[in-house]
Amino acid sequence: MTGVRITGMASGLPPNIVDQLMEVEKIPIKTIETKKNKQEDLLKLVNDLDGKVGEITKNLSELVSTRGFSDTKLISGDPNIVDGSVDSSIAPTGDYSIEVLQLAQKPGR
Fold first, then answer.
1. pLDDT of the residue at 6
2. pTM (global) more than 0.85
């Protein structure tokens, strides 16, 4: 007794059904690869941003350590009354107020 074999159009199935089934099986893999590529792109952007922030921090530290950028000087509200100079190697940076407790007098003769 010989077996009966039905193939192709007589079976009612498309001739490329195996190829179609293989493509359907690949859909989850393609979805994961797409997500992976997006995550890799985001990671690259974060790494680029981190590098640029690092450069800014480095440049700022160089600027702050440069003499002249943070010179210390005396600013008087009225240089005719109070004036002077500051030794920036000794004086700490800050705002200072001067209160006159007694006016200077010319010594009597």
1. 56
2. no
